[in-house]
Amino acid sequence: MKPKPGKTRVQALCGFAQPPPPGVTHGVWKLLNSMNQDQVALEARNDWCILELGKHLYNKYGSRVKMHEHIRQKMRELGRLLICAREVSPVTTIKELIDPKNFIHTVNAVKRTAGYNEETHVYEIASVAVKRGHSLSKIAMLIESHSTINGDEATAKAANSFQQLYQSRWPEYISTAARRTLEEAEWNSPLLLPFTEDVKCLHVYLDQQEKMYRNLLSSQPSSQHWSKLAMVTLTQIMLFNQRREGEVSQIPLSAYTSSNQSDGHPDISMALSELENKLCQYFKRLEIRGKRGRKVPVLVTPSMQESIRLLIENRNRCGVPNENSFLFARPFALTFYRGSDCIREFAVKNLEGERFMHCIYCQGLFLKNILWRHLKVCKFKPGDMKPKPGKTRVQALCGFAQPPPPGVTHGVWKLLNSMNQDQVALEARNDWCILELGKHLYNKYGSRVKMHEHIRQKMRELGRLLICAREVSPVTTIKELIDPKNFIHTVNAVKRTAGYNEETHVYEIASVAVKRGHSLSKIAMLIESHSTINGDEATAKAANSFQQLYQSRWPEYISTAARRTLEEAEWNSPLLLPFTEDVKCLHVYLDQQEKMYRNLLSSQPSSQHWNIMVKAITLPIPLHKDTQYSQGKPNPFYGFWLIPKPS
């Protein structure tokens, strides 16, 4: 075996010659030494938890060579996280990141690694945040099982507490915003459908490249020519069969060499036409492993067969190791060529540069015919907002100018000051639990402007509940309402707020009773997780007891009667169907209003004319489509009655 070129590979070869540390298997040690030998690899090599995760993954997937790169990447991801954690916190090992007391440090380190923007609530690399959470949860499971085996109850309990925190608080701090970033990236990305001319051009280009590199490999065998022909052939097979790139990229050499080329079953041949029988003889059919272990057929044309035959004959000459079991193998490596990389390379080389143009704001490169769509949603497009009039908004502007209290984020403080500045807002501003609920909801939904009103309403609801609780009980804070000793006081306060009638067992506003229960349960969860992080076991236990009481007794005292009130209100409400004449009259009236205010808006532009014009246009849409109103927008019927009647 000739020594492989490159500084890193020499270091890996020498490192593998050293004996592995105690407890590290031969396979994991080989993976560690085949990494790029940098600071990240050093951290992965020296951290016990990263090694345990590597052993865990190697035990599951070590027999599949194609998964070795996945295992290396998982270990390197945690190495990068550890380096970042040391920059932003006193944490020095992955095991300390799993400690519930360091949960906030863990969150900050993951946000820093994924490039989280506190103002826009957007991640630069959202998938990194999601993957780090999965890896940390898996490490917590490994630590818990390892500590249970060794009888270390304290460490096992701490790891279990981290897993509970991960289930209850990780979506709030990390995964909700990360997944939303991924989803919005998909929404905002234009759907690119190739033109027939482009597809034809790509196929012609691939045919030219195939002939050229087939001749070069026949006359001048080299690793470079072998690689180019393998990439061209892989791309052709993917396009011809329209298969997933992972399935075709990982075709084993044995699957091609051992494929059955004999004629099909005679009964099947009898059922086929003459043309179909000729096509079966023309193509070579492979059967490979697909998604979830399914058998997937792949057809290979005679031209592709000739290229593959040439690749197999020259594998050893061009530096493909005998240990590499893939058909489209990389020279001097044990991996394979990725189909997505191949098709991207040939597609980009074959495109004409004149059809593209840069966005003026983000400098992204887009096709000219879809650039207008991108400009509508470009995140770097500047937007000038004029100050809104109104007494309450001026108060909010003045209040927002003050610095927020310690622990209250910039966004939550802005929501608090945009409320109507009354006694309810004052209670919401001064109660720790209400602020915590606001932070929790803002972390999850803060980037969606339409959810800001929902967050404000949830905080105001608890402010009203607290005012009512002080009138009927000695309770003074929301945290006291969560105390299991005050459970009856909590029930009475909720009943009072929702207007419960003890004689008829009916609520005036039944939905209020249901919503208050959900908010109190969520606050109990927040208190429990916060106390677990700070090591306050008594408060965490009390909050957990309240949640158990909520599950077992809340339906008896509150929710059963509240839901019954809601159901009976639906049963007793009459079903109103509009007469045809009324619908016709409404449409005629809307047409008149639209014409009148269209003329007014054209001749005398004003905010009043614009608002009424929008209402007159919006209302016919659900009437015409016979569908629900747009999510998160006001009901157009509500605004319709504010349209002035014609004189």
* Largest sheet features: 2 strands, antiparallel
Helix-strand makeup class: mainly alpha
| Domain tally | 4
What is the number of beta strands? 8
What's the arrangement of strands in the largest beta sheet?
1-2
Give the rounded overall mean pLDDT: 81
Rounded radius of gyration (Å): 33 Å
Which range best describes the helical content: under 10%, 10-25%, 25-40%, 40-55%, 55-70% or over 70%?
A: 55-70%
Beta-strand percentage range:
under 5%
Query: What low-confidence regions span 5 or more consecutive residues with pLDDT below 50?
Result: 384-401, 629-647
What is the 3D shape? globular
Figure out the total of helices.
31
Distance between the termini: 97 Å
Describe the structure in your own words:
66% of the residues lie in helices and 4% in strands. It has 647 residues and is mainly alpha-helical. A hairpin with a 4-residue loop joins β1 (116-117) and β2. α1 packs antiparallel against α2 (26-33), α8 runs antiparallel to α9 (153-188) and α26 (510-534) packs antiparallel against α27 (537-572).
